[in-house]
Amino acid sequence: MKFLTTVFSLILLAHVHSQSVNDESVQLLSPVDFQFLEELTMDVLESSRIYPGEEVAAGFGPNNTGGVLIRPGGRDCYPAFWIRDYALSLESGLIPPGEQRHMLQLTASTQCNQTWITPGGSLVPYGAIADHIRVDDGKPIYFPGTYIYEDQGVPEFGTLPPISDQFFFIHMAYIYVKTTADTAFLRSEINGMALIQRLETAYRTAAVRSDNPLVYTTEHLRGVDFGFRDVQVITGELCFPSILKFRASNELAWLFEQLEVSQQAISYMKTAEKLKELIPAVFSDPRGMLKASTGRSNQPDVWSTALAVYLGILGDDALEKTCLFLAEAYLEGYLSYRGNIRHILTTDDFSAGTAWEISLAQKNTYQNGAYWGTPVGWVVDAISRVNKKAAQKLAFEYISELRENDYRKGADFGAPYECFHPSGNRQNPVYLTSVTCPYGVFMKLLNTK
């Protein structure tokens, strides 16, 4: 079967070069492959649920929060509720409203209500959203690297909490209201503050300069830009959280429209328009890639670039240039491995010893050069705009790896993995966003729902 898969991949690659690259008849995923992905995604999601009273693993649990929590994966993967992984999974449309409401309320209730300094010397600002939340006592852990409340916040993981979680919190509320039309919940008080006020407070937590709304951080007062690269040092103006802020601005504008507060809606729409103008102007390199930042680790960033395409941030001319470059990088072998995506093209590594400029992980492991499933949908979407054959091939490779290593085959199998590398390194089997995030994108691209 592996030999046949390889042969079929070679045939597909030949078709990419021999036929019209943008043939509208090309299916990015066959109905059979999409059904396989849908069923796998639902099974991984179920494996990731922590029901009330259920223990996650030895020493973690039981779940005393009063409702279902969704952790980042099954088996022994990350025994807590992570805001970003959950929020990234919402676009799948597979999480029912009751579960959404509980996790949204829990996240809001653990929002920091008083600025404080951790024993490790880090600062938790008023309005900050937790990085992850413990299942047994519902205590918020605002920083990566620990499950122990008293041990959180050391400089290696930033002197401020990760920035992206504030915007993911807004996304959670947006999806909930969009799904349920329950606008009344926005005005409900959680620990003495209306949810809509909590959303605005979270939005304002990320630092900006006086003359523009881009998110930024410094080396001495640094927050992780996005939790999927929390072992990197990235400073200056920050691309990925600025993209998330663009989306959050539009989402808050929509939420205020539902509440018939037009002044606030207009204000957030204007901020979104400004961010749409600034993001490509500040972060683009000559090839059309977006750099992760303007300070440390200011390297061309595949994830930021593909997400910006997916969210409609790039104008027409820049869009075509960017998508053509990503398609070329894919076909040349710099972008992906077995359908999974690197943070940085292999041609853009900082040095022979590291992919990112500064990382706690060894090169070609974890976030410093391994390949991930989470951004596959964004990349397929970008490539499909200029080369549907190449996008189809990437999608096929992604599905083929999932089929080959499908965790449902038994204990020796683990796909979807969090990440892996040709060296044989694989990390965290049964990982949720490796399927929920691509599934949500494919569902839209294929117009299946």
Outline of this structure?
The protein is of the alpha+beta class and 449 residues long. The chain is built from 14 helices and 16 strands. The longest helix is centred in the middle third of the chain and has 22 residues, at 262-283.
- Total domain units: 2
Percentage of residues assigned to helices: 40-55%
Distance between the termini: 32 Å
- What would you say the CATH architecture of the largest domain is? Alpha/alpha barrel
Structural class: alpha+beta
Spatial order of the strands forming the largest sheet: 12-13-14-15-16
Output the number of helix runs. 14
Number of strands: 16
By CATH reckoning, the class of the largest domain would read Mainly Alpha
Large-scale geometry: globular
Overall mean pLDDT stands at 94
How much β-strand is present in the residues?
5-15%
Q: Which fold name is given in CATH as the topology of the largest domain? A: Glycosyltransferase
Order of helices and strands: HHEEEHHEEEEHHEEHEEHHHHEEEHHEEH
Q: Could you tell me the radius of gyration in angstroms?
A: 21 Å
**Main beta-sheet strand count, sense and barrel state:** 5 strands, antiparallel
Please mark out the parts with pLDDT under 50 across 5 or more consecutive residues, or reply none: 1-19
